[in-house]
Amino acid sequence: MSPPLYPAFGVLLVDDEPSFLRSLNIALERSGGINHIHRCQDSREVMDILARENIGLVTLDLTMPHVSGEELLARIVEEFPDVGVIVVSGLNQVETAVNCIKLGAFDYFVKTDEESRLVEGIRRAIRLQELRQENQALRRRVLDDTLEHPEAFAHIVTADRSMRAVFQYLESVALTQQPILISGESGVGKELIAKAAHALSGRQGPLVCVNVAGLDDNVFADTLFGHQRGAFTGAEQPRAGMIEQAAGGTLLLDEIGDLSLASQVKLLRLLQEGEYYPLGSDRPKRLQARVLVATHHDLAEKQRTGAFRKDLYYRLRTHQVHIPPLRRRKQDIALLLDHFLAEAAEELGRNKPSYPPELAVLLGNYAFPGNVRELRAMAYDAMSQHRSRTLSMDAFKRAIDQACGEDSPSPHRQRAVFAPDEPLPTLDEVADLLVEEALKRAEGNQSMASRWLGISQPALSKRLKKQRGEGA
Prior knowledge:
Blueprint: E1 10-14, H1 18-32, E2 37-40, H2 46-52, E3 55-60, H3 69-79, E4 84-89, H4 94-103, E5 107-110, H5 115-144, H6 161-173, E6 180-183, H7 190-201, E7 207-211, H8 217-225, E8 226-227, E9 239-240, H9 242-245, E10 250-254, H10 261-273, E11 275-276, E12 285-286, E13 290-295, H11 299-304, H12 310-316, E14 319-322, H13 330-348, H14 357-364, H15 371-385, H16 394-404, H17 427-441, H18 446-453, H19 457-471
Parallel strand pairs: 1-2, 1-3, 3-4, 4-5, 6-13, 6-14, 7-10, 10-13
Antiparallel strand pairs: 8-9, 11-12
Helix pairs in contact: 1-5, 5-6, 13-15, 15-16, 17-18, 18-19
Organism: Halomonas sulfidivorans
Protein name: Sigma-54-dependent Fis family transcriptional regulator
Domain Sigma-54 factor interaction: 156-384
């Protein structure tokens, strides 16, 4: 399988010396991983190529027959202002370089410079062009509130605005080669987001997922990089690592926040250099997969405490997607409940049951520390016990009681805060306010409100009658 083209836009190399064009082409492919390259020896053809091809960056020689580099630079800046231009000239003159920058060139290099400097300069220009294009695409999608590829998100059940914003952002960064950091609590669906990012990338290779939590440094290296025969005791046959298995596709490193510091160094080098060494080999291999990472940890906090390398953190957060927890996506709960009940009914060979309206109210007031994964488990458990026409709420109530504990507060419950400059309410006033809030959240259902208040339904009914009597 041929490697995917990088970058998404073409890089046009313009020079009348075929040997220099060939040498620069090889250097970009070997050292920079840049293979979306067009070459042009005749300066008269440049403007036609720009009009015909999707070109994002041009390297331009100054001294050429027919049309000079400076004349071409001025025309490109005027007619194709979104195309970046790097001047690569044999003239080592400060005035010439300054004039090119004034005309709009991104950078200026002398052909006698070290090849690695030129390659790095081109890589830097590509990255800035990618950021500019990503910003334009994101701005367009947000302003128009559109998705160009909604089919990539068909497997994600949501009607939440914040999730739609995540989808729009993913579409904007889908074609870049830079890593994407996917963060969010356990169970929010980070792997589903990774699948969408892979689908949007257009890569023909597979999506390979690796959970790196708990892997020591040697196992991590062997898992990702593979090994040669005889690399260590027991290595009787060579084995391709996960990076090679994901060639032409996407590699997802899950639970990246649990990676050891020693392994973090290896990952950083892989991302910086774009190459790796299988264990026991002295010949490097190119990284030909897009890298995604996922974590439920706060990596910013971990790098502040020294548990995560700062340089790796900033390398990974180039593109960052945070998936909000289910408790902040209330309108998704009913949608997901219907989806999981239908899914479970199909697997169990049953008809999807109806459920009492109180169930949506009950779930809407639960914090879901396990997020979407927890709701799915609840739905499947309830379906496995379902016997009558209407789905019972008992399985959901038991699951919530086990998660929170009958006498323990919800892990996401916040303490009430009283204004220091206001008099404290009496216990009776606080109790009345609490009852009102419970009934409001329960949409008037006294049975559900009494559960949340920790009292019996008769006790709640008695208190409500007392309140009505006081108000009469």
